[in-house]
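Support reply, case 0932

Customer input (verbatim):
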Amino acid sequence: MIYFDNSSTSLIKPPGVAEAVARAISNFGNAGRSFHGATVLANREVYNAREEISKLIGLDNPLNIAFTSSATEALNLVIAGLVGKTDSVIATVTEHNSVLRPLYQTGCELSFVDCDKSGNLLYDSFEQMLKPNTKVLVCTHGSNVTGNITDAYRLYDMCKSRNIIMIMDIAQTFGTFPVKIDMADIFCFTGHKGLFGPQGTGGVIVNGEYDFRITKTGGSGANSFDTVQSKDMPDIFEIGTVNSHGIYGLQKSVQFINNIGVDKLHEKEMHLLKMFYDGVSSLQKLRIYGDFTSFDRLPIISLNIDGLTSPELAERLWTDYNIATRQGSHCAPLMHKSLGTADIGMVRFSFSYFNTEQEVEKAVSAMNDIVKSLQ
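Our regenerated output:
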């Protein structure tokens, strides 16, 4: 199998990740729940995971990282903890349903920054959407549809000057593209994509202090006689037993990234992306979405071939060439509406550091064959 569905989940993991999960399953107790050896071991390795992630993003205090089951859970907890019906919120058309649906559920007043025909955000419209009660801006750092990168610093500067809290979804960029702590107030991440970690891992990174409402409560291993959940980080979001098995695997995958460096990982992924783009961009009947004037972007290319639906193209790639891609709407409905693909979807190729030039060459050949078969 040639796996080009890394934006859904990474398949090939760094050395030591699977072994770490297996070791944890056989040796870890319940982190934060006692003082015996198995629990102390779990405590230590969960904290070491916080330190590796802190190093990656440039965070001073590792305890400002709270682990969750996914970016989806992280976004739900943060949005529900900050946004209410009387608040005005600005988001963008590039957002995933993990942002959109929690926002809709709050009943807040919502405005969306639109994009141009290449999927680039129209930043100047931000000013027009400001209201006296604008409290939060939520944005994705990198589109899972086009691969375009959001100018986080530009948006964060606008937010800081107006005391607006900026929440950034870094599910697609963390580990793949440089993410720094001075880009936003709050970051929501997943472990199983660009970080190469196990599924079922993710978290919230907080840059500062915020008055979150308690949206999830229960046992945290401390202050058991209190009737109200602690609002301190990381306790406010880490309720119940943390996934120390998966987090230990995540520690090893982030350690791998820190040792190599995000810039080096990104350089290889851009090389593979450019190889593919150069090999298919001149094909007749092919439509490519996103801005490729620069390759300082995510290793994603989404496309369609006239005469085939996106499921048909993806099925041919899989059935005839054993190439795994992702077809459909990618859980980003507003992006597809803006680009005019709500009815047809797209086929997305997403590359990883662990893919090879030979795999890309085979994918280019497959796309050429499919286009020729339609002539």
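We compared this against your earlier run and they match. Two observations from our side: The mean pLDDT is 95. Residues 37-57 form the longest helix (21 residues). Please reopen the case if you see a mismatch on your end.
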